Amino acid sequence: MSSDLPSTTPPDGKLTGTVVAVQANYYFVQLDTTSAASANLPPALHQPQQLLCTRRTRLKKIGQKVMVGDQVVVDQPDWQGKRGAISQVLPRSSQLDRPPIANANQILLVFAIEEPTLDPHQLTRFLVKAESTGLQICLCLSKCDLIDAAAQAAWHDRLKPWGYDPVFISTYHGIGLEQLKQQLRRGMTIVSGPSGVGKSSLINQLIPAADLRVSEVSGKLGRGRHTTRHVELFELADGGLLADTPGFNQPDLDCSPEALTQYFPEIAQRLQTGNCQFNNCRHHAEPGCVVQGEWERYPLYVQFLTEAIERQQQQQQQADPDAIMKRKVRGKDQVTYEPRLNRHKYRQESRRSTKQSVQVMKGRVEDFLDHSDQAPDEEA
Ligand SMILES: Nc1nc2c(ncn2[C@@H]2O[C@H](COP(=O)(O)OP(=O)(O)OP(=O)(O)O)[C@@H](O)[C@H]2O)c(=O)[nH]1
Ligand SMILES: [Mg+2]
Ligand SMILES: [Zn+2]
């Protein structure tokens, strides 16, 4: 398994492994066999492949967390009891907090075409979230046995301009799995997507030994039942590690307005062929913008941008309440904050009013650029 692990050099002569699951304060560590050899462990002991480990108190004291995917040094293995203690966490090449996982290099985003029906808005949210990790993305559309070839081709053609070339799969009919395996061979892949799209079914197909629990999509709501509850890593026969994760239906976006522009491949495509007039263009209402236009997800971009600006303003307000809120001293030790009356409340716009405000904005764009901490569609 060492070939699929992140390329940190294990400390010489020490026993290392990868954390494949975490449960309460226990860590399941898959041992790196080459490190076991270099640690000069007697082969006669028939070392087990996995040890159930605790975390050394020293790590607890320095607040060092241990995550699934971590490469760790294991001390004092008890081969018969199959136990050990983690004494060191090797440097991580990446770290995600939701789902909590270290050293992954790819996200396999799984969406069902039907059951539950593919929702382009939800898919875009997941894609943006996935893009924000900086990891490679492989988009996989599952349950393609539920649609005909024409519908599949239509989805393919629709997603191409988004910048994605999805792999269509059906675990029921074994379609697309070989193609997928090729994309999963290298490194560690996080399988992500809404509940009920068939993530665990897919992993079971690829790695029968995983034997993961699978549940039917709820008839009433057409949603998954959140069958998978924790993150766990599995090794593929042809190389590569896969992490099953609990499905979640609405990832929260927490990126800045500036970062958001990097998470839509369409924007990068348009910037390849031309430049916006302003360097810090948010591609919303600025004149001389090459990004604004008739592409399918542009209204979604504007919606997410509006959310990102709103979030940024809230964060600024929290960081500096005096700037936006009026500080009121009400007697001894009692300070309250109230909104300043001359500030207009920021509101989220409908698509139609977004279009209208684009027109209005053109007139005041200079203004906006001079006060770029202000939302573009805030009322003057
Ligand atoms: N039609 C069809 N149904 C599938 C396919 N793959 C999985 N399913 C069904 O989809 C349902 C959900 O599958 P799971 O594998 O539990 O989905 P999951 O994504 O792991 O869900 P969570 O663990 O809740 O996040 C089950 O009823 C599966 O039998 C497929 O290729 N075609
Ligand atoms: Mg599952
Ligand atoms: Zn622009």
UniProtKB/TrEMBL annotation:
Residues 334-380 are annotated as: Disordered. It is found in: Cytoplasm. Gene3D superfamilies: Nucleic acid-binding proteins, P-loop containing nucleotide triphosphate hydrolases, Probable gtpase engc, domain 3. One of its GO terms (molecular function) is GTP binding. Its main location: cytoplasm. One of its GO terms (cellular component) is cytoplasm. One of several proteins that assist in the late maturation steps of the functional core of the 30S ribosomal subunit. Helps release RbfA from mature subunits. May play a role in the assembly of ribosomal proteins into the subunit. Circularly permuted GTPase that catalyzes slow GTP hydrolysis, GTPase activity is stimulated by the 30S ribosomal subunit. HAMAP family: GTPase_RsgA. PANTHER family: SMALL RIBOSOMAL SUBUNIT BIOGENESIS GTPASE RSGA, SMALL RIBOSOMAL SUBUNIT BIOGENESIS GTPASE RSGA 1, MITOCHONDRIAL-RELATED. NCBIfam families: PRK12289.1, ribosome small subunit-dependent GTPase A. Monomer. Associates with 30S ribosomal subunit, binds 16S rRNA. Belongs to the TRAFAC class YlqF/YawG GTPase family. RsgA subfamily. This is Small ribosomal subunit biogenesis GTPase RsgA.
